[in-house]
Design brief:
Layout: E1 8-23, E2 28-29, E3 33-34, E4 38-56, E5 64-69, E6 72-73, H1 75-87, E7 98-106, H2 116-136, H3 142-156, E8 168-171, E9 185-187, E10 200-204, H4 215-220, H5 228-248, H6 251-270, H7 281-297, E11 302-305, E12 311-315, H8 320-331, E13 340-344, E14 350-353
Parallel strand pairs: 5-7
Antiparallel strand pairs: 1-4, 1-14, 2-3, 4-7, 4-8, 5-6, 8-9, 10-12, 10-13, 11-12
Helix pairs in contact: 2-3, 5-6
Length: 355
Amino acid sequence: MKQITEHKTGHIEWQSPSNIAIVKYWGKHGNQLPANPSLSFTLSTSYSQTSMEFDVNPDRKKFDLDFEFEGKPSPKFAERIQKYFERNAADFPYLNNLKLYLKSRNSFPHSAGIASSASAMSALAMCIASMESRLFGGFPEKSMFRMRASHLARLASGSAARSVYGGLVAWGESEFIANSSDYYAVPVNENLHDTFKSFHDTILIVDAGEKAVSSSAGHSLMTKHPYSEMRYFTARQHMEMLKEIMEQGDVEEFGKILENEALTLHGLMMNSDPSFILMKPNTLKIIEIVREVRESQKFPWYFTLDAGPNVHLMYPHEVADEARKLITELLVPYTQGGQVLYDQVGAGPRKIQGE
């Protein structure tokens, strides 16, 4: 990047959604590099919206940051963002010339079983990439803008790298995904069957409390985990299988891998050292009902879990109305206060203002 030689200011705003992992990213090395490739659906209505006012002045000698979350100062998040920039200063040669005023909000409640770091950090990365485009006269190729944003998002939160694109997205080098990389995510929508372009994800909030172990701590447990190498092998195998399954529109085979990945993730946490059990009794009850209905009614819905107790229920668009009825009748009683969030596969980040 060029040196900053003139004083520039601007306002940029992006809305970026969270995502739900199909093949889970669990375990990392180096500077936010994945131990295995992962695959996810980017969501639609579960997003973060971030407004950035920037002031870049060659006479400034120290990075300055103000941050508000949902209208109030948030020292905890401000510190995380400050550390993100300072830890990755080599990626921001203009850092000491920069003053930022950030405002962020979520469309979903905190601890709602949605990866807020994925949406928040991808929104921030989109804003940074837009600012850089304005400061340095754009990117040589259009695709490089998203690649840069995905790289920056990864440095803040691994799963955020995938939220930079819409639809089906892969992150991590895989011989089965063209142009895949450990350093940024890539969209995988070219040959995707129409069934998976409108898939639904309903989040059933079993427990809105803070989880017992952070994702960062969970990833670190994989370093010496006795089953880590087999896990990484299985993840690569699932990437290969899903490529064909999702091109053919095979919902049943997709669902088998989806659920296997979720249970594997929790199994790895349960037999790590120290071990964690993040599922709650009602998590298991919901899973039992989902399986019973699928078996007795041949109903095509499947569950997945992130590193927490809340259940993501996934199903094709064609059965959405019936699924809502079943959710209301059978599953809502096992949620905390009847909390259910309805979402589906979305188109990815949306620019509100700026380059």
